[in-house]
Specification:
single chain; mainly alpha; 11 helices; 73% helix
């Protein structure tokens, strides 16, 4: 009886949770859907062109502090830190998950950016920037750090890290480095890799469970959820006001359109972090 119970319990533990299978499928669908609608269609390109035309010429392709913080040395430092922290905590599985998440997400983004075509469907012909490498690094870095740290610091890492990642996404749009769709694509790539590493860990990792307490998990979830709703609601309101009197979305430019797009990009990142947090209570 005991042997049967242990065997059944082991079998359940070694199965890939359904939520990660669904997450991986949803991420691929979202990635393909955003690319198709925003990059491969003329209306999609026109909408995002109108946002790019709203960027002030004096700030176009400049950078802020959050963007400057994203660099090759910074990536190496983050990977080194997360691996070191996980090994200090005697969790080699978490170290492997963290490193794989960052490296896999960045590599996937760069491959897609290199091979995905952007047809010239409008008069504003700029090179392909889908998905955003900066947003990929920022979001993947937050989730990797959350994986490496213990349950006591993980909520703080998620809140502070998400705020930084949202700022990075906002600045990529504010300075004309990326389009909103690029940020959406980056978040889809990161969620795909999160699902991959968590699925692999469910099957092969022997690390003990490290679960955030229910009260703290709920508090963090509520905080991220509130920030998500507030940011997306503000984006919708400001973007709508900024469309203009003619209400022609694809031809509207101006500060209101740009501010709305900046908030929308930040909101997408916060929504991604909130979803990851809800799915990922146990690491």
């Amino acid at each position: 009886m005991n042997a049967t119970t242990v065997s059944a319990s082991t079998t359940v533990r070694r199965q890939v949770p359904t939520r990660w299978v669904l997450t991986s499928v949803a991420s691929v669908v979202a990635l393909g859907g955003v690319y198709t609608l925003a990059v491969l269609t003329k209306p999609g390109q026109e909408i995002e062109d109108s946002i790019l035309r709203s960027v002030d010429g004096g700030t176009l392709l400049k950078s802020g502090r959050a963007l400057d913080a994203i660099s090759i040395p910074a990536i190496l430092v983050v990977v080194g830190v997360v691996v070191l922290i996980a090994f200090v905590r005697r969790r080699p599985g978490a170290a492997l998950q963290s490193a794989t998440l960052i490296v896999g997400a960045i590599a996937t983004t760069q491959i897609i950016k290199a091979i995905a075509p952007r047809p010239e469907l409008t008069t504003l012909t700029l090179s392909n920037s889908f998905p955003s490498g900066h947003a990929t690094i920022a979001v993947a870095g937050v989730l990797a750090l959350a994986t490496a740290f213990g349950r006591h610091l993980r909520p703080l890492i998620m809140v502070v890290g998400t705020a930084f990642a949202a700022l990075v996404a906002e600045q990529t749009v504010a300075y004309g480095w990326h389009r909103v769709s690029d940020v959406c694509g980056a978040c889809a790539v990161v969620m795909l890799w999160l699902a991959i590493v968590r699925s692999a860990a469910a099957v092969w990792s022997n690390d003990p469970r490290d679960t955030v307490g229910r009260r703290m998990h709920g508090f963090t979830s509520g905080l991220l959820g509130l920030a998500m709703v507030a940011t997306l609601a503000a984006a919708g309101a400001i973007f709508s006001i900024g469309i203009g009197s003619d209400m022609t979305l694809t031809m509207s430019t101006g500060p209101g359109v740009l501010v709305g797009a900046r908030l929308l990009s930040a909101g997408v990142v916060i929504a991604t972090a909130w979803l990851a947090w809800k799915l990922d209570r146990s690491i």
